[in-house]
Design a protein that fits this description.
Shape: globular
Helix content: 40-55%
Number of domains: 2
Number of strands: 10
CATH class of the largest domain: Alpha Beta
Order of helices and strands: HHEHEEHEEHHEHEHEEHEH
Distance between the termini: 25 Å
Radius of gyration: 21 Å
Strand order of the largest sheet: 5-4-3-6-7-10
């Protein structure tokens, strides 16, 4: 079952909070019609109110429709703490002049935060490029949610030009600063500007060493970045992080490029498997359902 979201339609809303709500509402509607109906997104079920008990969880909207008192019976509390981590380096602005990897990550993070709030879980935000630019604690309040939405909106409106990736330094800092066991959700294309790939794997391993659960959403434009589908004509390619330029014909390098990029991806998947990190490849052109569903599956396992 696919829960596709019309990205062009939600972009017209402009308000990030409204976008997040629409993404989640569309996802939940699709979820209820799918084989995954068993997942609890908000509460498990209703039961009749027993005289004398607390009215804290009475569903007053349902009372207004039925004139009977029902209580929301919630799933077992998990007190989940989730740190949303976004790679905001320049490579995440690909493709230029259209819906890009960073916008996808921002919308997905805002939608996840909406789900976390529904499930009364705590959430925080970390944003990094060549440094850890934003790092908030985890809280579950509405005020905290609005603070994070403000940071995400600032990120949309302030492009990072020629910003390299320093995932290694930032992930080590996050591992040390998130003190309680948490779910770390990382959105990144993992295009680390380092010749030593062991460094990035050591940083990921550090998160696990601190007893955190980790989900890596490998955020890509599959058509261009993995399949290298370009028109049969000369192009001038520009490294978005360094500004370096190269002129070439895509067909001349396509075979070798695909071979190398697939090798890198397989190594990343293998290392994530070894460290117990959930690796989820997400294509920015396929909507947000894989992100939201992967989160629900992970949350269920963490109970």
């Amino acid at each position: 079952m696919s829960f596709e979201i019309d990205i062009q339609q939600i972009q017209k809303l402009e308000n990030l909070e409204l976008i997040a709500k629409q993404v989640v509402e569309g996802f939940i509607t699709g979820l209820h019609k799918s084989p995954f109906h068993g997942f609890s997104v908000e509460f498990a079920e209703h039961r009749l109110y027993n005289t004398g008990e607390s009215t804290k969880h009475v569903d007053w909207k349902l009372f207004g429709r039925t004139d009977r008192l029902f209580v929301k019976r919630y799933e077992e509390e998990t007190n989940l703490r989730c740190q949303l981590v976004i790679d905001a380096s320049s490579s995440m602005y690909f493709p230029e002049n259209s819906f890009n990897k960073l916008q996808f990550s921002i919308y997905a993070a805002a939608a996840l935060m909406n789900l976390l709030k529904k499930q009364r879980d705590a959430f925080g935000l970390s944003i990094f490029s060549d440094d850890l630019d934003v790092h908030t604690p985890t809280k579950s309040s509405t005020v905290h949610q609005k603070l994070i939405l403000t940071e995400l909106e600032k990120l949309i409106n302030t492009p990072n030009v020629n910003k390299s990736t320093s995932a290694v330094k930032s992930l080590h800092t996050i591992a040390e600063s998130v003190h309680k066991r948490s779910l770390i959700v990382l959105f990144s294309d993992m295009m680390e500007n380092t010749s030593d790939t062991d460094e990035i794997f050591a940083a990921l391993q550090h998160l696990k060493h601190r007893k955190h659960e980790v989900v890596l959403f490998h955020t890509i434009d599959k058509d261009k970045e993995l399949d290298f589908n370009f028109e049969n004509r000369p192009y001038q390619f520009v490294d978005m992080e360094t500004g370096e330029e190269i002129k070439l014909h895509p067909n001349e390098v396509k075979h070798n490029y695909i071979e190398q990029i697939n090798k890198q991806k397989k190594v990343l998947e293998l290392k994530c498997g070894q460290y117990g990190i959930d690796f989820v490849e997400v294509d920015i052109k396929n909507g947000f359902h894989s992100v939201l569903l992967s989160y629900l599956i992970k949350r269920k396992k963490m109970k």
